[in-house]
Amino acid sequence: MERKKVTPVDIQAMKKQGKKITLLTAYDYPTAILEDRAGIDIILVGDSLAMTVLGYENTLPVTMDEMISHTRAVARGAKFSLILGDMPFGSYNTSEKDAIYNASRFMKEGGADAVKLEGGATVKETVRAIVRAGIPVMGHIGLTPQMMSMLGGFKVQGKDAQAAQKIIDDALALEEAGAFSVLLEAVPDLITKRVTERLRVPTIGVGAGKYCDGQGLVVHDILGLFDRFTPKLSKRYVNLSELMLKAFHSYIEEVAAVQFPTDAHSFHIDAKELNKLE
Ligand code: KIV
Fold it and tell me: What is the CATH architecture assignment of 8-239?
C-alpha cells in the first residue's frame, strides 16, 4: 500500500479504529530517516534535546532558535511521519501573541506539522488561540518537565484523588480548547484509562500505562544513548553507548597499531606518475 503523510486527522482516526499510535523523539536528520522508514506515526522534536543532545541539566535553557534548527533537520529526514515541534519554556506563556508567533515559526521555519505544549486548564486559552491560527496542538499534562521546580522533581503525578481529578479536568479542558491529542506523562495507568475513555481525541502515554491510545518514548532512552539516568517509564531496546564505545576503542587501537588505514582505505598514484617526481 502506498504510504501517505500522517496528519492530525489520521491520528484522531486511529483512536476510532482502535489502532495504537506510536511516538518517538528525534532531533537529527539520520534518526528521523530511520524512524520514518520504520513507520513511527509521530516524530516529536522534544525539548528533551536540551538534556539528551545539548547536555543541559534540564529542559529550560533550550531556545526557540535551537528547537527550530533541530526541527528543520528532522523535517528534512522524515517524509511520512507527523512532525511535532515541542514549544520550549518561555515560548508560549508570555502572551497569546507570542505563543502564536512561536508556534508559527515551528511550521514556517521548522517544517513541523503541529506543536506540543505543556500544561492543562491554565494554558487552554493559549491552545485555543494557536488552534484558531490554524496550527494543530497536542497538549501535555501529568509530569510536565518545564514545571519541574514547581512539581518538586521527576515524580509520578495524580497519585491521590484530588491530583487525579485535576489530570482528568486538565485533559477535558485541552480537548475543549481544540487540542487534537493529549500526551500524559508519568500518570497512574488507571487514571489514564479514565482519561482515555472520557476523551474523544487520542491520548498518548509516556509512562502512563497500557490504556492510552498510543505510546511515546525518548529515542536516546530506548537506544541506550543517555546514561545520566534511566527513567522507570522507559525501555532500553539496544545499548548503542556500548557499541559506540567499542567502535571508538577499536579505531584508537588500530590507528596506534597502523592497522588502519589499510590499502583498501587509501588512494593510490600510478607508479609511472610517481617516477616522474623529482
Ligand atoms: O521533550 C520530550 O521529549 C517530551 C517527551 C517526554 C514526551 O516531551
Answer: Alpha-Beta Barrel (3.20)
